[in-house]
Design a protein that fits this description.
Blueprint: E1 2-8, E2 19-25, H1 41-49, H2 78-81, H3 84-93, H4 127-139
Antiparallel strand pairs: 1-2
Length: 144
C-alpha cells in the first residue's frame, strides 16, 4: 500500500484553502472513496464534458458528445472494464498505473512540474469532483 497525501480544493478557486486528505492506493486502485458523500453521476458527466473542469473530451471520445479528441481511449464501456477503485486511481493520478501517460493527475499535487504558480499545491479536481466523475464513468457500461 502506498499512502499518498493530497490536497483537496474546489476547482477554479485560485485562493481557496484546502485540507490534506490521505488515501491508500492498493495495486491499480484506490478502493475507498475520497469523500463520505457518494459521487453523483450527473455532476460527474458535467465535469467530464466541461473543458474548464475535467476537459476529458479534449482527448477522449465521450458517449453523447460530438466534439472530442482521439488521442486517448474512448470512454464508452469503461464502467464495465474497470472497478470504481480502478477508475478512482486513474482519475486521481493515472501515472500510478502508467508512468508514461499523457493524462493529467487530476488530484495529485506533489511532484508535478510545469504548473502555473496560481495552481501550485491545488488539485485540478476536488475530492468530491473525483467521486462524481467516478460515479459517471461507472455508468458507462456499453460500447456506444
Amino acid at each position: 500500500m502506498l499512502r499518498l497525501l493530497l490536497g483537496c480544493a474546489a476547482a477554479g478557486l485560485a485562493a481557496a484553502a484546502f485540507a490534506q486528505v490521505g488515501f491508500d492506493a492498493v495495486g491499480d486502485a484506490i478502493p475507498a472513496p475520497l469523500t463520505a458523500e457518494p459521487g453523483d453521476a450527473a455532476r460527474g458527466r458535467s465535469v467530464v464534458v466541461n473543458r474548464d473542469q475535467g476537459g476529458c473530451t479534449l482527448c477522449h471520445e465521450v458517449p453523447g458528445e460530438t466534439r472530442f479528441g482521439n488521442i486517448a481511449p474512448p470512454l464508452a464501456g469503461v464502467g464495465a472494464k474497470l472497478s470504481a477503485g480502478q477508475l478512482r486511481l486513474r482519475v486521481a493520478d493515472s501515472t500510478r498505473v502508467n508512468p508514461d501517460t499523457p493524462m493529467p493527475a487530476y488530484y495529485r499535487i506533489e511532484g508535478l512540474t510545469q504548473v502555473a504558480p496560481a495552481y501550485r499545491g491545488k488539485p485540478v479536481l476536488s475530492a468530491q469532483q473525483v467521486e462524481d466523475v467516478v460515479a459517471y464513468l461507472a455508468t458507462l457500461k456499453g460500447t456506444k
